[in-house]
User: Fold this.
Amino acid sequence: MRDGIKDVLDKYEVSKVIVEEVRPEGGYGVGNTHTHKMLMWLQAAIAFMMHDNFQQIDLEYIYPSSWRAALGIKNGRGIKRTTLKEADIDYVKEKYNINVNDDEADAICIGLAQYIKADTNEIN
Assistant:
């Protein structure tokens, strides 16, 4: 995955990479420890690759609760991960009329939330 991201950054003019912050389901110390470690290692691999090759590109981390809040997707205590994933997919389907899986929906929503955060109206 790291090499695929590097290929994209080599090919396109990118000014910022936004990575979803890793939080295991249920908060820290709860959830699948192996998955949490793997995601943390992937984050580190991306950060090191960017440091070594793309120091001019900003790297920003955003929590799932932050990007969902920016889009008006209800989240917080008591709402299950599966419900949130369905809400993300529904948001993209309603806004763009496209069918996506949960990872694709998350990526689209994170990008859209960044545009909203940057206070721009140039959303395509």
